Amino acid sequence: MIEKSGYDLVASFSLPSEAWWNEYYTPLQIKLIGMEEEYAENQDALAVIDMTWREIEQFQKYSDYYGNQAFLLRKI
């Protein structure tokens, strides 16, 4: 797929789950708590907040089975 798109693969690596917890999910959890209070009367916003809590829960349960991969590509 990379080559068909006109690129060479220079390198790739998996992002560790600790990076997601430390840099993304932990700050996001803190922010969500404040947002729940701020948007208590907005059902659409609360639905998005709830969906985000579920995403965090899924990552917590299943991060050993999926993750994110970074690719460094060079245009051919």
Description:
This protein has 76 residues and is α+β, with helices and mostly antiparallel strands. The protein is 55% helix and 22% strand. The mean pLDDT is 93. The chain has one domain. It starts with 6 loop residues before the first strand and ends with a strand. It is elongated and about 50 Å long. The chain is built from 2 helices and 2 strands.
Offer a concise description of the structure.
The chain is α+β, with helices and mostly antiparallel strands and 76 residues long. The protein is built from 2 helices and 2 strands; from the N terminus they run βααβ.
Order of helices and strands: EHHE
Number of strands: 2
Overall mean pLDDT stands at 93
Count of individual domains: 1
Helix content: 55-70%
Low-confidence runs (pLDDT<50, min 5 residues)? none
Supply the number of helical segments.
2
The shape is elongated
In the sheet with the most strands, the strands line up as: 1-2
Report on the biggest sheet.
Answer: 2 strands, antiparallel
Q: DSSP strand (E) fraction?
A: 15-25%
Calculate Rg over CA atoms.
Answer: 17 Å
- Structural class comes to alpha+beta
Calculate the terminal CA-CA distance, rounded to whole Å: 13 Å
Features:
76 residues; two-stranded antiparallel ribbon; alpha+beta; 55% helix; elongated
Fold topology:
Layout: E1 7-15, H1 17-38, H2 43-62, E2 68-75
Antiparallel strand pairs: 1-2
Helix pairs in contact: 1-2
